[in-house]
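Quick start: what a row looks like.
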Amino acid sequence: MTAARASASPGTDAASAARAVRVPRFVRALRPCCVAVGVLVFSLALVAALSGVAVAADGGAAGAAAGAGTHDAAAATTPLDDANGTTQVIVRFTPVEDPDALGEPDGNGSAAVADLREHAAAEQAAFEAFADSRAGVTVEREFWLANAMLVTVDADEVTAASLLSVANVTDVHRNVAVEPLRASARSSGAPGPRTPPSQNHRPQTPRLQIDAEPSGSYTAGLRLVGAPTAWERFDTRGAGATVAVIDTGVDPGHRDVDLSGWASFDDNGTVVSDDLADASDPDGHGTHVAGTVAGGDASGTHIGVAPEADLVGLDAFGENDTATFAAVIGAMEYATTESDADVLQLSLGSSGTFRGFIRPVRNARATGAVVVAAAGNEGANTSSGPANVYDALAVGAVDEDRAVAAFSSGQPINASAAFETYPEEWPERYVVPDVAAPGVGVVSAEAGTRNGYVRRQGTSMAAPHVSGIAALAVAATDGRVDDDDLQAAIVDTAVHPTNATEPDDRYGHGVVDAPAAVGAAVEATPPEADSTNEGETNGSADRETGSEDGAPGFGGVAAVVAIVAVAGLTTRRGGRR
């Protein structure tokens, strides 16, 4: 479970590079069956020896702090410090030491999910007993993905110190507000004054509907990322992949939106409804995002990057157009279990860096999902969480000329200054975003209409292009691509307009390229071993390769080569890749 972000500096030290080496899950799955083969055991031991070991994200710091931090105040203070009366807090517990050591992700009820549930139950038991015996403390909701609890506390009777004194409790923070990431009206790539956050997140004024483009055409965004070429080259439009759009909802009444699943959540992160008949989107933000991920072409214009992918709409937002941390985590849990999502699409965030997002993103990755997040819309030298968590795939916005939009967030991150404590395998420094995608004047579905289309802009509109590419790669590999390799494929094939060899805080590694990304994912995914023995009918050459058509398979020598290649794949670009 590695991230796709690279160090901001080419001078990453040897210790950081060593921590960056990880072993993909499919290799770990081979270990039990290779014990008897000495050369394979040796190869696996060698790779394991190079692997980094994670530390508690909310535990001790790794690396020296340098400069003033940009971390949210919630990371340093507790919401009980100045509170009176009843208030809600998030209580955090000791995290899984190494998410990569969890069981293999294999869909709903996966071993990884089971391990996370078991760990959370054990860690939270002492606090449950404490709450049962202490007046003024009520557990409202338990979360296994973040190993956290939503707790109602009478601040006049209970102190933060008493909560922190309970076994396994590592932190107490507020149930932070999360908003849809909206852009200001400006779309120019030229630098300019930044829109204040208060305006940046204010609901946009209604937009005029636009006519669909001529029959058989594609939106400018699809053309820019090369989606039609990827469809033709790999004979897939996303069938078999699942993308969960965690947003303001999705309107299934639009002719280009085909929902396969739905759930809405209250502020506590509890499912209010999972009946598809209840699906809606009073805001329109989520419908536009969903259309870019997997919208159809009923108008004659293709609007979705992966139109045949399964689309799940998860509404985490209340009537005030704001979500809570608990609601977002509840939706992420649902996405990784009930929806069995391959991709979590998050065009939402909280301004600045917030340590509380680290574990849910990392653990979602451990279940096998890629977390695609919008970088934010407050311009240069800013970013939003969870996109600025190293393990997320952060996306910035460009216009049709591949110029970075002025509103698109991006910044170098000093991990110790920004988060104070962070996983050991992270580099000390990296940049946000990872990649860029079309986010200016993006045409997609308009909620509340059956055949309306509107233009919106923002990194919220850029991120779903990347989620759609991820879905195409999942489909092209029949779901076998490892999340590490999938994220690396998208990042490593991005094209920087200036041919820069190092990522920067405006483009990241560059603008995404769908055909190249899908191709890289296919190349990184080993072919399935032939599970049948058809005797002499296939010929000796085919039996040696383990494939009916003579394509490379996992014979004895090929397995060794593949394992050695894995070590190279996991050391990309100086970060956790």
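That is the whole record. The longest strand covers residues 86-93. The first helix runs from residue 14 to 20.
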